[in-house]
Every structure is written in structure tokens, then in C-alpha cells.
DNA sequence: ACCTACACTTCGTGAAAACCGAAGTATACG
DNA sequence: CGTATACTTCGGTTTTCACGAAGTGTAGGT
């Protein structure tokens, strides 16, 4: 019989990447979690983690198991939220999935308008790979997916995309790094260390085309599927990184980096994907209208 | 923090319909399960079951919670199977969903051919409402769905139906009940107590049309979405019930009932619904070919 | 090279929980 | 109205879980 508590610890450790961080989240001590996970591994005679340096890393088996656990406890959290909400009753659920390539502050600004609706919404927000989010959209476990690309056609799922807006991109670096690559933008990018979005993103290929046109060859030193992670590396001075221009001010402020330059020749778009049930969800309406009115007003 | 063990007990009790049966499955005593579920209810201050007679029934909250639990532990079971299978490695997964209106012995006969393939399959079989199965098909948590109707068009899911076969239906009753309604078939059905498939099934409406044509008004005393349940009631002598003619012999033998008559004017069809990935799953091939070759050979 | 900080592990103990036997209550059925 | 069945309640017992103390191994600075 599978021990769901142990599996839960496994999940938290896997997603936080370390036992210590899992402890903070679970209010437990490391030896407890370490022990319980060892027991789990023992039960099935298979290692889920392996030590790499002083961190833990998923083994092959662990990587296989993680999506199952993910699904289980994601559902578990929703169930718990539902059980707790029972008494006060009937606020409308609004379940949003966010593709991990979308910068968090964009997401925040997109979703913020839904918080101020007259009818109280209960918002659930989840981040994942686009494909998985769309699957959940199909079975109506999500009401809306926010992504940087419209609905792909190769999936066996119907969905309707709605463009929220489009904007140019800006380049950022720590001041020290920026000083090392002086000169006019964009020529200053020549040979500079660059962090770029992963191969699966839309903006990646546009960016590369633009570099070719400008006859600039930056030195790509990192690829990231998750924009927050990319920005974290950028903040440490590893390389120059990009973000949509609408959040340029915020990036400069929050990460303490310098704006190197910006272009509208490369644009990033954002889409709201829904199944478009007969009744439009108030949350979706708020997001699409809010995006048009406030976030992307300066653009066509 | 949600107690997953208690939730698991809740799930088993809900799906078996009784604590005692859950005990058999979990190797526990009733007082344990009863107690643990009470604790769960206490934690969230909400009843999940209510006593009806000496059985338990889901409350409104329980009904809301069940699909979540279903999802969780279904996934949990798959995970466990995967973890166990790890050592011997690489047998092809074949996950089949069966709509509950399809008689079990038909399902068995359809699936049986896959057991004898040269390449070893690991078959997972799940029974549920058609709609839920199709949702899981869309996100590739299932490879095939077997149903009595082709892919409905109103869902936001793509799927491809393939007709497995078609056959007439037969009427059955206990000998005692049959004796009470003597005479030639189908006139003997006039005024006889009848158990029929639920309103959502395809055969239901065909059956009613046929009765109208024959100018027969049976007395409908029960509707069932689950064919096994209908047959159980039929076995107890509650009423006359139907089943596809291909399994007539088996129904007579297994339930100890008499065959009253059969007609090919009302037919029941069975379909295999898949997402038709590039590569045809060996299990799907085996089922469609097996159906054509063995089960429904006598028909066009 | 060595010291310190950090992350995970091992071991033994104590507390919490889960579980069971016995007995009790309530319902269905003949 | 008695018997069988299903769920509950109430102790006591067993098992599981969690922590403190101490240990191993790695990273990084001096």
C-alpha cells in the first residue's frame, strides 16, 4: 500500500529541490523527511533521489514518478481549498494556468484586474508547461491558460486563443556587465554573454532572426524555459537577459539591473486560451479587457 | 494539512459504497475506517457521508469531493504500478477506459485478444462515465475508450471512433417471472416489468421506438446506467432485462435466468475511441481485429 | 591544507496516530 | 419480535512519525 504521506514529502522535496527548503514548507526537521523518503525508496526498492554534491537530484525513476505526484497533490490542494471554502460558500472559481515562459510580473498585471471585480472570485493559479495546462483546459480543470503563443494545432484538444497584446523587448544587465560592453545599442551586444529563452518559446526564434539581421553574434551562455530563473541568473551578472518592454521599469527596480536598450523589431505576444463555453467567465473578461485597457495600450 | 490516508479511506468507502466492503479491500476493521473518516470530517467541519438506513451515502460535500479523490488515487495507483514494474522494465502500457453501460463480458471478450499478443502488454482497465473517460483520452492518460456510442461532437476534445461491431438484443428473466408472462415473444412483454438502460444510453431510445412500433407497453420499473447493476436486479427477479445477443448464452449460464426472446430490430453497437496517434497501439489493433474476427462475425 | 558552513544521514527515544477488541446503537427482514 | 447486518463508541495496544544528538560528506573561504 502506497504511503501517501511519504509520497507527499517526495513531491515537496522534488519541487523545492532540497530537503531543507521542504522542511520550511512542511514545518518538519530534515531527518524526518530524509528518513521518510528513504523508507519510500526502500518500499519499492528503487532510489528516487541521488546525492549530487550536497544537493539532491532526481533519479530516472524519480523523474518518472514526479508527474504522477504532481498531479496527485495539485488535485489534493484544490480539494483542500474546496473543503475549507465550503462554509462561506459560492464564490466563483477561476482557475488560471500560466505557461512558465511568461514573466511573472506580466502575469500579475494581467490577473490583477480580476481581484477588483464586484463579484468575488476565488483564483487558483498554476504554473506548468503549456502542453499540460492545455490538457487540463480540455477537461475543464482550468478556465484559462496564459501563454506566449496561441493554441497549437497539433494537439487533440480544442481551444480558442485570444491575443492579449504585444510589445517589444528590452535588454538588461548588471551595471558591471553593461560597463564591460559599452557602445551603442544594439552593436554593444556583439560577443556579449547572453541568456535567452528556451528553444520551445516563440520569442527565441524571433530573437535569433533579429540578431542575424543586425549581424550581431552574441555569445549564448544559457537557455531557460522559466523566465524567473533566467532573470535570477541575470541578476547575478551571468549575462545579459531580456524581458518585455512593458515591464522594463519594474525589472530595473526589482533586480537592480541596468537597461541596455530596447527594440520593437522583436516582439513578444501574450495570449489567453480558453474553451469558450457558452458563458464567458467573468475572470476571462476582466483579464482580456484589462490587458487591452492598461497593459498594452500603446500598441496597435 | 490534508491527511491523505484518511482521504484514501474516504475514497474507498465512497466507491465501494460501504465501510465493510472497504475493510475487505484495505484489510482493516470497520471501527478504524469509521473513526478515521469521522476525524476527516471533523478536521474540515463538514460531513462527507450521511447514514441512510444502515448504509452510508455521500452528502453534497462528499459528492463534490469525490471526483478530486478519484483523480488522486487513480493516479496514485498508476504511480504505484509504475514503481513496482520498474525492475522488469519496458512492457507496453495499454490503458483502456470502459463506459459503464457496456456489459462486462463484452468488454472481457473485446480485451481478451490483447492478452495473447507476442509483445507483453500491461493492461490498465478503468470504468467510468463516458465523458470523463474521453477527457482522459484527450490528455493521453488513456489509450482507448470502449463505449456503446461513437465520439460525441459536443465536447472540446478530438477523438476518432471505430465501430467494433453491432448485434441484436435479447430479453431475459428469472424462470418464475417468465412463467408469469407467457405467450409468444414479443407480445408477452406487454405490461411486464422491465429494467432498461439509463436515459443517456443509445440503446434506450431505440428500444422505446421498437416498443412503440410493436404496440407494446412494458412497465418500466427501473433505469440503470450500469449494465452489471441492471443484471443483478434482473437476477433477483425484479424485472425483465436485456443484453446483447452475442452474450446471451453467457448471461443465461451465469445469472441462471431464462432467455425470453431476441430481436435484431433493435441493435446495440460498440465503438473503440482513440486519439489515433501516428503509430497504432498494438492493443488497439488487437481489439479491433479480434472484434471483427470473433465477436461480431455473424453480422454485416 | 585547514577551518567553517551547509546539506543530508543515522540512531535512539518519546509522543502521536492509527488500529483493534469489546460492546453498543440502529436498521432491515423474515 | 428475533436475528443478521452495518455503522459507532470506548478503552487499550501497536505502529508510525518526528525530533534531538551526533555523524558523514561537500563547498568555499583563508
UniProtKB/TrEMBL annotation, chains A, B:
Q: What CDD domains does this protein's entry cite?
A: PBP2_NhaR
PROSITE patterns, per the entry:
HTH_LYSR (PS50931)
Q: Which Gene3D superfamilies match?
A: 3.40.190.290, Winged helix-like DNA-binding domain superfamily/Winged helix DNA-binding domain
GO terms classed as biological process: regulation of DNA-templated transcription initiation
**Domain of life of the organism encoding this protein:** Bacteria
Limits of the HTH lysR-type domain: 2-59
The entry lists its GO molecular-function terms as: DNA binding; DNA-binding transcription factor activity
Which keywords label this protein?
Activator, DNA-binding, Transcription, Transcription regulation
Sorted alphabetically, which NCBIfam families does this protein's record hold? Answer: PRK11062.1
Q: Which family does it belong to?
A: Belongs to the LysR transcriptional regulatory family.
What is this protein's record name? Answer: LysR family transcriptional regulator
Q: What is the lineage of its organism?
A: Bacteria, Pseudomonadati, Pseudomonadota, Gammaproteobacteria, Pseudomonadales
